[in-house]
Amino acid sequence: MLEGSVVIPMNIDDKLALNLFHVDSIPHIEVNSEICKKCPHWLCTYTCPVENYKVENDNVVFNWEGCLECGTCNIVCDQGAVTWNYPRGGFGISYRFG
């Protein structure tokens, strides 16, 4: 650290706002909505850190554009509805601060 410089602490929202997203038109995650309709708990809607999974009209709706690529949805989906892949080269998230 430079002498005399001031360190301003950042909260998680400030840090996440610095990330860059290179969104692909082809989703890197596919969700089988027919399997989701039969899911007893919809854990993905509670565990996705950026809330990309939502329940609308008794259906799970997924939006991949803001995905942090953490893989949580793939881990918690015990119904086999989520097919998770890394984004194609040049696409996805670029972490800028941690």
Automatic annotation (TrEMBL):
Keyword Cell inner membrane belongs to the record: no
Keyword Transit peptide applies: no
Residues covered by the 4Fe-4S ferredoxin-type domain: 27-58, 60-87
InterPro entries in the cross-refs: 4Fe4S_Fe-S-bd, Fd_FixX
Gene3D superfamilies: 3.30.70.20
GO molecular function: iron ion binding; iron-sulfur cluster binding
Entry-linked PROSITE patterns: 4FE4S_FER_2
Keywords, ordered alphabetically: Electron transport, Iron, Iron-sulfur, Metal-binding, Transport
Name of the protein: 4Fe-4S ferredoxin-type domain-containing protein
